[in-house]
Amino acid sequence: MIRFIALLLAVTYAQVGQASMSDQDFSDLKTELMSLISRVDALEAENKALKASVVSSASTVEKLVTSDQSSNWTKSVKIKGDFRYRYENIDAERSDTRERNRIRARLAVTAKPADNVEVGIGLASGSDDAVSTNQTLGGGGTTKDINLDLAYFKWQAKPGFNVIGGKMKNIFYRPAGHGLLWDGDYRPEGLGFTFERGNYFLNTAANFLESDSRKNDDKAAYGLQTGFKGSFGNSQLIAGVGYFEIDTKTREVFIGDSDDFFGNTFTCLDSDALAGCTYNNNYEELELFAQFSTTIGETPITLFIDLVQNQAASDLDTAWATGIKLGKASAPKTWELSYTYQDIEADAVLGLITDSDFAGGGTDAKGHLLQGAWAINKKWKIGFTFFDNQRNMDVGVAEDYKRLMLDTAYKF
Predict the structure, then answer these.
(1) Which of 349, 355, 344 is nearest to 403 (CA)?
(2) Do 126 and 135 contact (CB within 8 A), yes or no?
(3) What are phi and psi of 311, to 5 degrees?
């Protein structure tokens, strides 16, 4: 633009100059204008170079900032949790009817220090119970315990292959989320490996019941589970087999009183004083399971069966559960209803880590389980659970056990 104005002035002056100036004056003026145009050209070139330099610098800064943000793994930190309020009514034969109010609060933080690595830490209410994070209200409003619920790493070594270590969520598949072998709150400790290829999966782990050899009773549980996941139209089938070996024979209890074997059979050196009590068996559990899911109309339906036999016990060695679930309480104003029947003999599975609610927890029980829920929205659900069971059929005196739980639960 500047150069254009200079040229325009040159032409104008040329026309005027030819009319009113001498030839020498006009020549001098023309020389000065040409010099001015040359300097304008130089200034425009410098201006273009300066603009290019500024743009390049801004681009470099933007790339550096973006690179710094992407390399800052704290940007990938995620926080999630849930809270549940529960009312319970327990009617156990030969015991007074019991009512209590309980809460469960959990909070977990996960981060990705690398694209294929996840690290998680979680806190939960409750006590040192291995299979429950519930906290009973009372005690004059005393403060409640918070414990370490999760502390793990998860490394995706290759697509479909993960290595997990620490105190982690249970990697073994539970058909329909049922707790025949493991309670849903159980957090195993050790190392696990998961592998998926196509329709097939394999999970294996070494979990520590006690890892300190200084105590002379270090114990580990080993497990292997493999199966098939396949879809057929709007239906899905999941089926598999598992084997779990838990070394407990001649070992004392892991937590609680000296006779807290959670339904498993045991022997005491002093039966009257309940001293020197130890497990009668190891647990070499062979599991077969299947789950079938489909949709009829707009209603999801799930059927499952789970069968376990302890190969290390000569008697009272079988457990099984089967059930059906209608609907799914997930989207707002949706519902679900399920029924399960379970029979779990005294030495079929390790009572320490099986469902902590069925018949009051542990093994040596059978009966019915009815559950229902209604989703108010995606984050808020209300529900009920009712147990109609019998317990202590194999060991002790058989008794009826009924339990009603009413829940309101929130996720965030």
Answers:
(1) 355
(2) yes
(3) -70, -15
Euclidean distance between CA atoms 196 and 173, whole angstroms? 13
Q: How many CA atoms lie within 13 A of 318 on its CB side?
A: 4
pTM above 0.70, yes or no: yes
- What is the spatial distance between Cα 315 and Cα 346, in angstroms, rounded to a whole number? 9
Cβ atoms of residues 114 and 121 within 8 Å: no
| H or E element in which residue 125 lies | strand 117-125
> What is the residue type of 339?
Y
Which residues are within 8 A (CB) of 83 and not within 5 positions of it... i.e. 6 or more apart?
A: 103, 104, 105, 106, 409, 410, 412
Residue among 143, 125, 142 at smallest CA distance from 134: 125
> Cβ(152)–Cβ(167) under 8 Å?
yes
Sort strands 189-197 and 161-167 into parallel, antiparallel or unpaired. antiparallel
One digit per residue, the tens of pLDDT, for the chain of length 412 reads: 545 445 444 545 455 444 445 666 656 656 766 676 676 666 666 667 666 665 565 565 556 545 555 556 567 899 999 999 999 999 999 999 999 999 999 999 999 999 999 999 999 999 889 999 999 999 999 999 999 999 999 999 999 999 999 999 999 999 999 999 999 999 999 999 999 999 999 999 999 988 887 766 677 899 999 999 999 999 999 999 999 999 999 999 988 899 999 999 999 999 888 899 999 999 999 999 999 999 999 999 999 999 999 999 999 999 999 999 999 999 999 999 999 999 999 999 999 999 999 999 999 999 999 999 999 999 999 999 999 999 999 998 999 999 999 999 999 9
Enumerate the β-bridge partners of residue 386. 370, 404
Note whether 239 and 227 are within 8 A (CB).
yes
Contact assessment for residue 131 and residue 183, using Cβ atoms and an 8 Å cutoff: yes
Q: Which residues share a beta bridge with 102?
A: 86, 136
Pair of tokens at residue 69: 């943000």
Q: Could you give the 3-state DSSP secondary structure of residue 239?
A: strand
- Single-letter amino acid code for the residue at 81: G
DSSP 242: E
CA–CA distances in Å: residue 183 to residues 98, 160, 178, 270, 349:
23, 26, 8, 32, 12
